[in-house]
Specification:
six-stranded antiparallel β-sheet, elongated, alpha+beta
Amino acid sequence: MTTSVIFEEDVAMIIRVLAALLVAALPAACATPGEDRTNAETPAVPAGCSPAGVRWSEPSFASRLTRVTVFGERATVSPTGQPVLTEPFTTSITRLTAPDDWTTALATSLSAVSGRTLRNGPAVAQDGGYSLLTGPQDDPTIPETLLYEGVETVTADFSVDCGGTPVSGTFTAWTELTVGGVTCGGVEAPAEELGKRARAHCPRTPAPGSSAAVPDTLPFDPSDEVFAD
């Protein structure tokens, strides 16, 4: 009899636990996809506040690919090609909703702090054909060549006192844009960091351990010289 009572109490406890779990799960199950369940909103700059007396964290620098295009022939870099990476970059402010003119003001301020000239707006290479030195083609069966674009980015956190109301965010800009080329048929990876990253987008590359092409003229070795008696 005792055993039966204990068993019934255990079943009742399990039912109560399952009911509690079901009630807790209902709000999440009914939530709209993509809805921010924390209800947290990005703070906005108070009206009339300008970014004066900006306080900055230590800026960090990084390289980022923005575009990679593959071409079928190594000899010519033509206006056409197949884009394999397109990730445009532009100056931005995150964690804070700020007026458009803040990006220009913050770029000027961070330039003075970092000692680097920061660019404002999108990082876009000028239109036109490019003739680039892309390195040796060690494997003639791999004719593909890459044209890549990339930027050096600068990121720092900032804070501004808006009449007693402090606001803060993260500012990201760029310093310079680089255009380069990569020969997919080359055994050695490019020395440049952006070139190494771009090479990962080659449709194919020589197998690891492949030998480079034999040069047209072999270096002179004195031990090979034969002297007549």
